[in-house]
Amino acid sequence: MLDIDSIARHTATIDDVLRRWRIPSRDRADIAQEVLLGAWRSMRAGRFQPRPGVPDAVALKRWIVGISWRHASHYATRAHRRYEVLVPSAGRLCQDHAPAPLEQVEARRALDDLSRVDPRFRAVLALTAQGYTIAEIAAEIGHNPNTVSNRLRLGRLWFRRVRRRWRRLAQDRREHHPRR
């Protein structure tokens, strides 16, 4: 059985995964600690079971990357980590860089629609949108590239259906309740 030191040796890998997910540096240490603690608890519970023929060090690294990836993918949904940084007259600072209001509304709708997609597919969609290739995503999460490709295909299909459904509902609402 491996010990806590063998898990702790992978802190650079954990930090790399969190950085790739663009987790703010102020939260990286907390999430890395959760990853290490979760990996240790899982190992003690017997959930670390490397495949036969795979060296323990390689299997452990893949396993820790998977745990880190899951923690990072759930980061955005955990409200207890979010807080606002107060900036005086923020409107003046970002006035030149702010997108048009309609673009902001459309972007928010797209994010809302993305939140309705199955989490397995949402994570692959998000990584693809960040510019990662299927091979890179597969290596990060420890899945076969064909599985990742299939999840990307299904995620895109699901996302299109969600977008269509909500657009249709909004259109029906406008037709049945016209503005005065």
TrEMBL record:
GO BP annotation list: DNA-templated transcription initiation
Pfam families: Sigma70_ECF
GO molecular function, one term: DNA-binding transcription factor activity
Protein name: RNA polymerase sigma-70 ECF-like HTH domain-containing protein
InterPro entries per the UniProt record, alphabetical: HTH_Sigma70_ECF-like, RNA_pol_sigma_r2, RNA_pol_sigma_r3/r4-like, WH-like_DNA-bd_sf
RNA polymerase sigma-70 ECF-like HTH domain: residues covered: 100-161
